[in-house]
């Protein structure tokens, strides 16, 4: 921890006092870099030992890592890259240069890769726009997402405006991950609000059904929910009716996400004083109007930190579709590594993936903290 | 007209119940039609049949001639085994890192936050796959890494020395229980004496000495028997010692590293939630540091720590189902093979769900009980 401003001011004041009384200036260890080192790294023998150990680890790990990752690494793509990798002492980043198309876009037809790329950029622009609190109005967000979403799906699927149709079983890579993530959040959040309201309903049948659904889903892993969507759901449909696998997985993930989010929102709902509801009722507002206009806006605002946590988890959870065989970013990468000359360099490819996932999740958590601070300041949420 | 609020409520409820019943009936009717069309059996008779496959590793002796029910039990035991070890290790790691993040040592605090940020912000499935890839990429058994005497790390997993069973072990266990009971009695005596006279005798160290000293005494009396089963390279693989497969190590490492990062944050938040004034006030009334930690800081921090910790434990158990991605034979993996062989997906998934719901409800019940115990009774 850095020295607190209070402590600094105090030591400066006492130093000035000491000089006024004709005393000596504070010893050199009480000032500047040395003081910082002493309080933060060498405060006691125990801390000095820990610091030396930490420095030793740094010295022992960093140079070999540099040699592996940069100095001795191979970056060239293609056949030359594969040969360079076999010779290189360090990492083989060539695998990413060689396989990035498959990793990023999966089985999508090669010449058409610009389509998922544009769709992905558009999708990201929509997400970024939705992060601005002043946009948080249904009259803004709903048309934005309807138009943007339709454009993205048209780009990906084709069949309109002269674009060649591409079946969604061929969609893959990072665009699929982002699609699953935004789909989960877009379907899941309204569903979660409804489920939370249902669970708090005064009608026993409604709250009973919702409680059972939420608790049962929260009690099992996402893997089983995905199995239900992939394996059981077709069994429960009449013969001949065929929902596609992507849509089933998407709905399964959305329901799973909604069950967790419903509990967070329920926490927010419980924090709303009864007086708010009674005041709204006394103004003559019915259930839906007082819920939508009075209760939910306040409850959601309270629940924002928890909601963001589960949204970040939802992004990480998209990787689980590997288990039912969808080619998301992780699975497309895994599939691209089947190629014999590149099989040995899986670690490098996965590290690249980890960096991408990390950046996205880290950005979201920073955004969540920013939002929390902003709300703590008492500024309107949007 | 439905003007009465209660009448409207009744109708809504009837409608919801009717929709639910219709949906279930629709699904089951379709399922039975689909199953009879594809000649897939229904019911639970398959559980008694021979499974015909061997799980990769198991704590209970399982073979292809075992029944499906027994094979499934092997999977459940594996799930419980990896979850239990994972919970212990992740709690320990989380505690150390959580305290490390609050350390006055700048370097240690940076290390701790770097660990938390990296492992919290990448998918656990990716982490497990990376651990697995790294383990499989290790040299073969003949060139196995040998970081400590008797510890071998190769692409066949981890081999460590294991203590051999001795005749004295059950007696040592008994002595431990006796010592523990005596320690508890001693603690009670110390507490009562302090309440009566105000004087406090040392409670913890004598108790620890009793709980550990008795088994040590029995061990010494038995002639201090201690033999280690050291792994030795024989041909292409190791003999002896305890064998941890790459699948198990990768799954455990992934679960511990991921959950540990979350637990570290929970521990940090818990400790930070205790106001400084509480510690200063405790010091002012003359409590010594151990008593401040035990009587003032921990009770208040635990109140904040326990509920989210419970959900992390639950999350760890549920995440152990990701074993299916690397082939560790947990309950999901075993059930998936069963479903592939018998086609009975409904029964199979019902079993998986029942297992996880049981685990979840047990952990939730235990943590609720513990939470009530540590909750501070307010006015």
Note down, in words, how this protein is organized.
The complex is a heterodimer of chains A (about 375) and B (about 375). With about 375 residues, chain A is mainly α. Chain A contains 15 helices and no strands. The radius of gyration of chain A is 28 Å and the shape is flat. Chain B contains twelve helices and eight strands. Chain B folds into three domains: about 35 residues; about 240 residues, MetI-like fold (Orthogonal Bundle), CATH 1.10.3720; about 55 residues. The model of chain B has no long low-confidence stretch (mean pLDDT about 85). In chain B, strand 1 and strand 2 form a beta hairpin. Helices cover about 70% and strands about 5% of the residues of chain B.
Q: How many runs of DSSP E, i.e. beta strands of chain A?
A: 0
Enumerate the strands of the largest sheet of chain B in spatial order, edge to edge or round the barrel.
1-2-3-8
Strand content of chain A: under 5%
Oligomer: heterodimer
- Per CATH, which architecture of chain A? Orthogonal Bundle
- Biggest sheet overview of chain B: 4 strands, antiparallel
- In the CATH hierarchy, what is the superfamily of the largest domain in chain B? MetI-like
Amino- and carboxy-terminal Cα gap of chain A: 35 Å
CATH superfamily descriptor of chain A:
MetI-like
Q: Which percent range fits the helix content of chain B? A: 55-70%
What percent of residues of chain B are in strands? 5-15%
Question: Which structural class should the secondary elements of chain B be placed in?
Answer: alpha+beta
Q: State the distance separating the first and last CA atoms of chain B.
A: 50 Å
State the gist of this model.
Helix content of chain A is 72%, strand content 0%.
Defining key terms:
heterodimer, A: 382 residues, mainly alpha, MetI-like fold, 15 helices, flat, B: 379 residues, alpha+beta, 3 domains, four-stranded antiparallel β-sheet, two-stranded antiparallel sheet, 8 strands, globular
């Amino acid at each position: 921890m850095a020295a607190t401003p209070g402590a600094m001011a105090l030591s400066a004041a006492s130093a000035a006092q000491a000089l006024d009384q004709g005393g000596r200036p504070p010893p050199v260890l009480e000032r500047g870099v040395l003081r910082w080192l002493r309080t933060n790294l060498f405060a006691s023998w125990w801390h000095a030992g820990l610091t030396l150990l930490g420095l030793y680890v740094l010295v022992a790990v960093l140079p070999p890592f540099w040699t592996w990752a940069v100095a001795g690494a191979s970056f060239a793509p293609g056949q030359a890259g594969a040969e360079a990798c076999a010779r290189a002492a360090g990492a083989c980043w060539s695998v990413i240069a060689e396989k990035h198309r498959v990793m990023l876009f999966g089985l999508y037809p090669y010449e058409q890769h610009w389509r998922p790329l544009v769709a992905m950029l558009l999708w990201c622009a929509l997400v970024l726009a939705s992060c601005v609190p002043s946009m948080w109005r249904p009259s803004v967000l709903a048309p934005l997402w309807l138009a943007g979403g339709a454009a993205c799906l048209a780009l990906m699927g084709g069949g309109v405006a002269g674009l060649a149709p591409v079946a969604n079983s061929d969609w893959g890579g990072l665009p699929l991950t982002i699609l699953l993530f935004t789909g989960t959040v877009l379907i899941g959040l309204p569903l979660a609000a409804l489920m939370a309201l249902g669970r708090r309903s005064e009608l026993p049948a409604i709250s009973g059904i919702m409680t059972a659904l939420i608790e049962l889903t929260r009690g099992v892993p996402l893997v089983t929910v995905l199995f239900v969507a992939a394996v059981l759901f077709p069994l429960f449909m009449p013969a001949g009716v065929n929902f596609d696998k992507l849509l089933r997985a998407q709905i399964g993930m959305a329901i799973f996400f909604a069950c967790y989010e419903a509990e967070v929102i329920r926490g927010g709902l419980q924090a709303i004083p009864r007086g708010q509801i009674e005041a709204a009722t006394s103004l003559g507002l019915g259930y839906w109007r007082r819920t939508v206009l009075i209760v939910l806006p306040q409850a959601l605002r309270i629940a924002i930190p928890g909601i963001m946590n589960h949204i970040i988890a939802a992004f990480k959870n998209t990787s689980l579709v590997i288990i039912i065989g969808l080619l998301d970013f992780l699975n497309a990468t895994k599939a691209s590594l089947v190629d014999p000359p590149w099989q040995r360099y899986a670690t490098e490819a996965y590290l690249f993936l980890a960096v991408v996932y990390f950046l996205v999740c880290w950005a979201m958590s920073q955004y969540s903290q920013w939002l929390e601070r902003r709300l703590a300041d008492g500024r309107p949420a949007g | 007209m439905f003007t009465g609020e209660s009448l409207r409520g009744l109708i809504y409820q009837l409608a919801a119940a009717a929709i639910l019943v219709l949906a279930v009936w629709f699904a089951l009717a379709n399922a039975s039609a689909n199953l009879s069309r594809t000649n897939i059996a229904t019911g639970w008779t398959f559980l008694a049949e021979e499974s015909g496959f061997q799980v990769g590793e198991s704590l209970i002796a399982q073979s292809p001639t075992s029944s499906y029910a027994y094979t499934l039990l092997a999977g459940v035991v594996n799930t419980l085994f990896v979850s239990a070890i994972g919970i212990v290790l992740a709690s320990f790691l989380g505690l150390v890192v959580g305290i490390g993040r609050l350390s006055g040592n700048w370097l240690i605090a940076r290390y701790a936050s770097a660990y938390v940020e990296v492992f919290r912000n990448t998918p656990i499935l990716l982490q497990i796959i990376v651990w697995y890839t790294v383990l499989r990429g290790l040299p073969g058994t003949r060139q196995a890494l040998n970081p400590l005497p008797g510890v071998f790390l190769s692409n066949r997993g981890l081999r460590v020395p294991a203590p051999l069973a001795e005749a004295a072990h059950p007696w040592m266990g008994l002595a431990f229980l006796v010592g523990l009971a005596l320690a508890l009695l001693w603690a009670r005596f110390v507490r009562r004496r302090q309440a009566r006279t105000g004087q406090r005798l040392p409670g913890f160290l004598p108790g620890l000495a009793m709980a550990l000293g008795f088994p040590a005494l029995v061990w010494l009396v038995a002639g201090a028997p201690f033999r280690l089963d050291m792994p030795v390279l024989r041909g292409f693989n190791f003999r002896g010692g305890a064998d941890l497969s790459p699948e198990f190590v990768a799954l455990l490492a992934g679960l511990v590293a991921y959950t540990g990062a979350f637990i570290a944050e929970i521990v940090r938040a818990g400790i930070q939630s205790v106001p400084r004034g509480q510690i200063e006030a405790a010091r002012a009334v003359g409590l010594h540091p151990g008593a401040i930690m035990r009587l003032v800081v921990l009770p208040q921090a635990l109140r904040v720590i326990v509920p989210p910790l419970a959900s992390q434990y639950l999350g760890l158990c549920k995440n152990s189902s990701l074993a299916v991605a690397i082939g560790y034979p947990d309950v999901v993996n075993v059930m998936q093979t069963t479903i592939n062989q018998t086609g009975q997906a409904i029964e199979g998934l019902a079993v998986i769900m029942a297992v996880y719901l049981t685990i979840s409800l047990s952990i939730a019940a235990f943590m609720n009980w513990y939470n009530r115990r540590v909750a501070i009774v307010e006015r």
